[in-house]
Amino acid sequence: KTVYGANVIVFEGILAFANKELLKLLDMKVFVDTDSDIRLVRRLQRDIMERGRDVAGVIKQYNKFVKPAFEQYIEPSVQVADIVVPRGGENFVALDLIVQHVHSQLEKVSQGAALASAHQGQPLPKTLSVLESTPQVRGMHTIIRNKDTTRDEFIFYSKRLMRLLIEHALSFLPLKSVTVETPQGTMYEGKRFHRQRITGVSILRAGETMEQALTAVCKDIRLGKILIQTNLDTGEPEVSPAAAWHTAMQHWHVTNHPSFPPQLHYLRLPKEISEDYVILMDSTVSTGAAAMMAVRVLLDHDVQEDRIFLLSLLMAEMGVHSVAYAFPRVHIITTAVDKRVNEEFHIIPGIGNFGDRYFGTD
């Protein structure tokens, strides 16, 4: 099972250090050691009480198979361990050391991610394309940004903007020169899209509103959906209930860390998507957290980074820089870019909660 957005991944097994390729991926290697007498006592207790075996049989098996196998295959792997923990889970000093180290590494990662927001005020990335701000486009933005706009008008003009955005995005797809014959018998030099397929992927729920505009201009396009709920307090993808493991870590001083493992709630992608040009749609991009997770999902399905087009009606500079910093070859296309994000992670001046206004749930 693929894990998306996890802060810490724990890989456990008695032969965890046997694979050299896996060792290269591990940031910290911990060998949990236990005295051989204690191991034997545990085995005796388990086999006698739970499996109904006799003492002599257990000891014979231990000396003939278990102990030699441990000494030959498992014990030598202690040489590659960064930390050796005697007495296992009862060694709270060692556990505290490990957790503090993980905590410090997470802080370094957070500082690295903060570099993207430090780009605010800097020139926007070259991978960004903003729809030309014609009087018509500004007029539609005025309507959808107005808090007094009725829901019917909001939907109507949002759809118009979406159509323009989709048409603008299609101009960045690779085209080849072709010559066709007109009904008058003359030749016309034109362009035609390559034979590669286009797939649309919407980030639910607001991104789904752009599907109608996409299907209106792209015939027989395949559609996929990704649901990544955003935590309104942090602006990050929402934590899953399984993240309650943090409460067990209170003794190890990490509960106040601002990041929590996010959860991918739903994923449905068309088959054989790896060679497609993918149009990834979300109505707004503020911090860029959900968009980055969606891009990561596509990359894990072997979609090429430079074939991903992130489309949004409105983006904040912070979100633009975050996505471009993490994925420099992803094409970012929008109708407007606003300067900042407030403490509630809303784009300012923005358009409010697009999904609530569009679906009438505000």
From TrEMBL:
The keyword Nucleotide-binding applies. It catalyses: uridine + ATP = UMP + ADP + H(+); cytidine + ATP = CMP + ADP + H(+). Pfam families: PRK, UPRTase. Coiled coil: none annotated. Residues 2-93 form the Phosphoribulokinase/uridine kinase domain. The keyword Nuclease does not apply. GO terms for molecular function: ATP binding; glycosyltransferase activity; GTP binding; uridine kinase activity. Its cofactor is Mg(2+). Keywords: Allosteric enzyme, Glycosyltransferase, GTP-binding, Kinase, Nucleotide-binding, Transferase. Residues 133-361 form the Phosphoribosyltransferase domain. It comes from the Eukaryota. One of its GO terms (biological process) is UMP salvage. InterPro entries: P-loop_NTPase, PRK/URK, PRTase-like, PRTase_dom, Uridine_kinase-like. Belongs to the UPRTase family. Belongs to the uridine kinase family. This is UCKL1 protein. The lineage of its organism: Eukaryota, Metazoa, Chordata, Craniata, Vertebrata.
